[in-house]
């Protein structure tokens, strides 16, 4: 048997341990290849996609590539630690340190080659499906047809083969300073019972609580200022949570004899304290990586929702036309003919109303204020299904918007209620009440007065024409086409919300698509870290449970203990990450004064479901191997 054959059989014998590393690496290669597949697609080469989007994909590919380096490096380190005894036996049989390093090098090259090739083939297999998904998310007019991405294949193959080659050289020297006696003992060296500092445990709790409280109580622009300090405090608190506080809590529970001596709790808690201590850094890393994934995707999705909601709430009409100050009556009439003609061509049925927006100088007011005739206000209010108003003579109704831009409230109504309006006949109009309405977009609020009172206001300081159209439901696609045409013919004068929403989705889709891919890579890596730690301890777990089975451990008791252990080990860092992500998204909602509960639930709930499925699959294979070795 040659040396290369020996390395290959080593990989094959440890296939259950290597499978997570192989699949995760292959998935990472597939994602990188997918970005290359997009970037070099012939459709994009013709300039149909914004170059900034292509730059974003390139940067995202670079992030994935750099992250892949550390991910693969950590994975190999975990495998080497679990195989100390194997390397010690090889050296006892006469293998030199150089030969052991060569075995490690050849094994990693072998896995890296097949993971790279497998990732590319998997990417090609699902490329058409992914292109169809991207076509809808990116909102591209052209079809992303399947093509054979030779350039993407070459770049991916060279990039990851070099990556695996470099890491293979790097990790092959990890065993250089280990003593033979340490290798032979492997993981069987006795461990002292884990201890935790009471002071550091208290500090961990205080840091997490203070970080959460600070993130949840700040509002507005202060959220940005508090972001960095909160991240630092929560990061330190999370590290101490897994290294100190978790061990302290387990030790405290063990002191409670009523709990500790109950059924299989002794076995669960005794083993759990050691595993929490051994895996503290892994849990910390998983929690922080998952938090980054949750927060990034949640923030992108939340910010898109905020933009969409603001535009929808602040622009209730299908089309709004505001001419320039210097436009003559002829220009305005010509513009309106163009708009109506476009609507007819696209078969859009609408109702039209126009209103004259006049600004006056009320008493006790430094700034000019919009005052609207009640009949005109009622005409446009009916278009969007709002209630009409009937102010009496010498009375005014204050109107303020109920959807402020980006959630920043102005409280304009309180200020306008303090002012009065003087008429030409000497009478004074007093504000009666404040109502909310989106009939007219005026952030500073305005007055609605009786028609007769309006005629006594005199000459206004400024006057503008505002014309609105309201289309029937189900004509959104036609309105997008109308908006595209009018945006070219009458830029800055016509606003079509459906077209603007389409443009935002078209711009924002690639950003969300890229963020989603990076987030998924991070989350898969986090889950893989837990898998590595679980299966690298498999041999020790087999020996331990085999010994306990001899003194009476039943199969159902084994399932119960293992289920609880794996559940705690799998979900402890994920639960922490979900809490971190929930706090981060709540802080984002405070920044923009928008409720992001639905978006947070979708993002965090989706990742939680994925983790549950991953846990069930891992638990099945883990339990299967344990039972095969014991019963």
Can you put this structure into words, describing what you see?
The protein has 631 residues and is an alpha+beta fold. 68% of the residues lie in helices and 8% in strands. It is built from 23 helices and 9 strands. The protein has helices at 3-13, 15-39, 42-45, 51-82, 84-92, 97-125, 127-137, 150-171, 180-185, 198-217, 222-254, 257-260, 265-278, 280-314, 329-345, 374-383, 412-417, 451-455, 476-489, 497-536, 538-550, 555-592, 597-630, and strands at 319-321, 350-360, 369-373, 395-400, 421-422, 428-436, 446-449, 462-471, 494-495. The protein has a 9-stranded mixed beta sheet. β2 and β3 form a beta hairpin. α10 (198-217) runs antiparallel to α11 and α11 (222-254) packs antiparallel against α14 (280-314). The model has no long low-confidence stretch (mean pLDDT 79).
Salient structural properties:
nine-stranded mixed sheet, alpha+beta, elongated, 631 residues
Structural class: alpha+beta
In the predicted model, the low-confidence regions spanning at least 5 consecutive residues are none
Major sheet characteristics: 9 strands, mixed
Total helices: the number is: 23
Strands across the major sheet, in which order?
A: 5-6-4-7-3-2-8-1-9
Task: Tell me the number of strands.
Answer: 9
Kindly report the average pLDDT value. 79
Helix content: 55-70%
The share of residues in extended strands comes to 5-15%
- Shape descriptor reads elongated
For the termini, the CA-CA separation is 35 Å
The whole-angstrom Rg is 33 Å
